[in-house]
Amino acid sequence: MIKNLKFAAALLACCLPPLQAEMNITPVASVNLLGGKYFLDSDAASFQGRVDAFVSPAINLAEGRDLIPVYSGNYSGTQDIQELAGGGVLTRKRQTHTFSLKYVHTSEFNKYKPRLSYSLARIKETNDEDWGDGLFDYNTVSAGFEAEQERPHGTFTESYDFYSVAYPNYSTLLSDSQSVFNDTTTFNELSTNAGENPMDNMSHRLAFGYAWFPEPLNMKAGYDITYRTYGDQAVTARPATGQSPFKSDTRADIAQNFSLKAARVVKPLYLSVGARAGWLSSNQGSYDSARSKYMDDYYSYVDVQVSPSMTLALKNGVQFGFSLDWRRVFYLGRLKQDSAGNYGSDEIDQTYWLTSISARYPLFNRFFARAAYNYQVSSSNMRYEDNYRYNYRASTYLMGLEWEF
């Protein structure tokens, strides 16, 4: 992880010009202090706080040369369900911190943007868990480059990013479990190729975008592809007597997304609708030893998503927002189960609905009162939920102050 961060910093430093004696700094910052409550299937959690912070002292080094450092942080004391390790996990508290640096070189109608970032996420599944001990805590180092070309008919963008993600507390239990096996041969069969850090991964992402402006619309189309490898997560094999349940191959995923978005301003309204189609292909399977069931393509799926939104911005600074997010996921190898865990012949499908309503009212200077309400419904033909949540109704309301600079 440290080696990756040093390499990324050196790469960015090579792209930077010598610092000028006179620099213009434009600070930008915003902080939200909110309190709220979370409801899961009508069960209410205690009233908790949420903090969102963004700070960016943008530095103009010279004409056409800008350096943009950014810190963004978030703390959420309200519990919610997060997509972790391939399923919905109920988390109690979360905090994330991201530090990024981007250099922008502008040459006529072209822009070149090397960038790097480091982030850490801390996640509590129980209230008595200490920060830093969470099973799903992770750290991310990334470095990338983006190019942009503005033309009379539209703007093209191309980017490449590298990500390295480490889960310091997530390790295979087999690595510490030899003492529970009376039979050394059995332990050796299980532990062969099992790996100690199965969630650690590295990704390479390519993205292409095109934006154009057919009046009165603003249009944007995009495509991205990500190749992700799990160097210490062996591929699960169809078990055979006397053999390891893992192959010598390691897990590799390929994720692709196609997106299209249209937006229009009809003062005082801002209207937009986005659509996305995705496909994730994984070579990882799954074996349920309790029911002697093996499944290929356990993590592979296709999904579609539609996201309309509307913002009402009044002249006195009052804003109202409404958005709807619908997503349908079709797993390609993960079979549904009844409430007792018995497998059916059909694959799992899952539908998400997320409705969000927000309001912002100016108080004084740069302070605003802010309120938000989110309601999410997840429904699936999967009925067995001892490991992950597939069917639930959740809602959150938040109220508090926002400051902008």
Topology of helices and strands:
Layout: H1 2-15, E1 24-40, E2 43-44, E3 48-62, E4 65-76, E5 80-84, E6 87-91, E7 93-107, E8 110-124, E9 138-151, E10 154-166, H2 184-191, E11 201-212, E12 217-236, E13 246-266, E14 269-282, E15 286-288, E16 293-295, E17 301-313, E18 319-337, E19 343-364, E20 367-380, E21 392-404
Antiparallel strand pairs: 1-2, 1-3, 1-21, 3-4, 4-7, 5-6, 7-8, 8-9, 9-10, 10-11, 11-12, 12-13, 13-14, 14-17, 15-16, 17-18, 18-19, 19-20, 20-21
How would you describe the overall organization of this protein?
The chain is 5% helix and 66% strand. The protein is mainly beta and 405 residues long. The protein has a single domain, classed as Porin (Beta Barrel). Strand 9 and strand 10 form a beta hairpin. The longest helix is centred in the N-terminal third of the chain and has 14 residues. It is globular. The two termini are 34 Å apart.
Which band does the percent of strand residues land in?
A: over 45%
CATH architecture: Beta Barrel
Rg, nearest Å:
24 Å
Distance linking N and C termini = 34 Å
